[in-house]
Records
---
Amino acid sequence: MHRTKIDIPLEKREPLVALLNDRLADLIDLQLQTKQAHWNVKGPNFIALHELFDDIAGSLGEPIDDVAERITALGGVAEGTLATVGKRTSLPAFSVKLSAGRDHVDALSTAVATAGKSIRAAIDRSTELGDADTADLFTGISRDLDKHLWFLEAHLQADS
């Protein structure tokens, strides 16, 4: 941990940084999974899904940066390398063999739901650690993930 004059004690900053790095890994993984779907989707809804996936992937850039910057503001090191993300992510692996639009939507909705669940748990944990700013950051991300999940699930619910 780097020195900082922030008024959050080190014994709280260390678990906060670990929590933030775990969620950073999820968000980076989610962005990469979404781009995988964007590049490889096929089928009658191609253009709609291609654009939806690109919009979701693009919208993840800002929260990824915000989480990484929060880590460094707390005196930590943002761990965003591919190797670290691969070790830390809690998301299920995304198959590179998918092509059908519905399969991509199903896999991405699972990934978004998993990320959302982890982010909500992170809201609670950062609140327990007394860091309202980190909890607020996670709250905004949670709200956005829920919206993405709604958009994805609307494609699955149409067949129900």
---
Amino acid sequence: MRTDIGADWQVFKLEELVEKVRGDEARFLEFINVPSMSCAVYHLPKGCKDMQSPHAEDEVYFVLSGKGSLRVNDEDHDIEPGTVLFVKANTLHSFFDIEEDITVLAMFGPQC
């Protein structure tokens, strides 16, 4: 999954990260966690209920695969591969109406 290059940087293979979260259950794999940011791959299978709650960090989702919707507060947004979404810290949000397994790359800023 990760190739240690040195103390100052690392290389990750997206295909290997995605493979680790694939399956019939919701899975979350954080692969970077440093004071300035964190990154994860998040997988939600078709028909799954997203149980996340608001985070203390700003968040960017990049949709890698799948189809469904993201509800932010009371507003719904259709998502598909290539969609990029920003959710401000402490904002109520969740994925729903998951028509095809969704896998996203999630990037978090430092906690507010």
---
Amino acid sequence: MSSSDYFLPDANLEPGAANARNIPYLPGHMGLEITRIGRDGAEGGFTIAPHHHAPNGFLHAGSLVTLADSLCGLACMASLPASASGFTTIELKSNFFATALEGRVHGVASPVHLGGTTQVWDCDVTHLDTGKRLALFRCTQMVLKPRKA
């Protein structure tokens, strides 16, 4: 398939462009850094800082969900056909296995199902320094079609 077969052109698959677009939005505020975007998935992470913690001092679950949801959303957008008008999340689920207080968190989003109406994506979130799995995330995306006049 060529770039014109997809919703996003190849030029929009550059991590630097995604990071620049994220600056004013939640991923930018969280310090997320996208390191890879492809039609087959996305990768990225953040270095744990105090704003990633919950009031109890542990890593906030929402920090991990924000990372995983952002990576899955980028990958979904990259894999959408040109006939789509966008996508929206219709379900997400997370399992948490461990926490961390410092270091680098890394996520890898990969497709489970790439259908014409829905897509399902998984994101494995690990502590990059220790290799320990922190969370496993799954989301279902509805592929949006242009409205008929």
---
Amino acid sequence: MDYVDGFVAAVPTDKKQDYIKHAKLAAQCFKECGAIRIIECWGDDVPEGKTTSFIKAVQCQADETVVFSWIVWPSREIRNIGMKKIMNDARMKSENNPMPFDGSRLIYGGFSVVLDI
């Protein structure tokens, strides 16, 4: 069954086009390394919760927007091989494709799919 990497970040709202450019280049690399699908979502209805929320999780500021993304891989094994290639790809180095957001507030993780309807 598929394997998914998920991401949540706070991106400066005025850097939306920079983010899309960054994401397009990264997506090309992920696809070349075995990813099936890459989804990038720009928040437009992200409420701030009282206890938890995407906004609280990434410490989103008033001039930032929450981004929610995921990458679908055919398996964890292919993902692990692909991620090693991506980490060594010159296009993914910060000097060639800088993240237009604070990477220290990025939340990410890998997930085994248990239901896909």
